[in-house]
Amino acid sequence: MCLAELDRADVRYSPAPVATSIDACSVATPVRVTAAGIAWNQPGVVSCGFALALDAFAREEVNPAARAYFGRDVRLIRQFGTYACRRETGGEGRWSLHAAGRAIDIAGFELTDGTTILVERDWRGAGAKSAFLHDIVHRACRRFGVVLTPDSDRDHYNHIHIDSGPWKLCEK
Questions:
Q1: Which of 44, 74, 113, 128 is an S-S bond match for 82, by CB 3.0 to 4.6 Å?
Q2: What is the residue extent of each domain of the chain?
């Protein structure tokens, strides 16, 4: 049923079996996504449900914000990673939502005119690029469980982590 919803939403994906012997690293209906509302710079494996959430976020939040700040849409989301069978930072403790295909690390965006907005370079700056990134985080916090930024810790100096876990933590 979820795959049919991806088809209706025009998400570009293919099934992506995730072979693992670790229960914590199983993904519910894994898909390899190349575009969810907006094209991605590289394919990423996520759960079908998370792909739908990212598609809605791109269409209903990211592009409207880009239009408000820059008068154009986002052509590309630059992401560092999605599925990874690993624990949270430090390698101990609870499993990362990346291990369940329910997290993405966004490094930046490219607008239709070629303008790039990078978290590492533009997060702390002044002006429209920084304001756009902070607005995206604010919008993500309304939709997702955990949103981490360069202000969260050193591990997130160059990306925005978004996940759909059961915890609520928004580090704006």
A1: 44
A2: 2-170
85's tokens: 């069978």
What's the pLDDT band for 23 if we cut at 50, 70, 90?
confident
9-13: list long-range contacts, CB under 8 Å, 24+ apart: 9/36, 9/37, 9/52, 9/55, 11/35, 11/36, 11/37, 11/51, 11/52, 11/55, 12/36, 12/39, 13/51
For residue 163, what are the contacts with CB-CB under 8 A and spacing of at least 6? 97, 98, 102, 103, 104, 144, 145, 146
* Buried-exposed string 153-168: b where 16+ CB fall within 10 A, e elsewhere: eeebeebbbbbbbeee
Residue 93: pLDDT over 90: no
CATH fold of the domain at 2-170: Muramoyl-pentapeptide Carboxypeptidase; domain 2 (3.30.1380)
Question: pTM higher than 0.85, yes or no?
Answer: yes
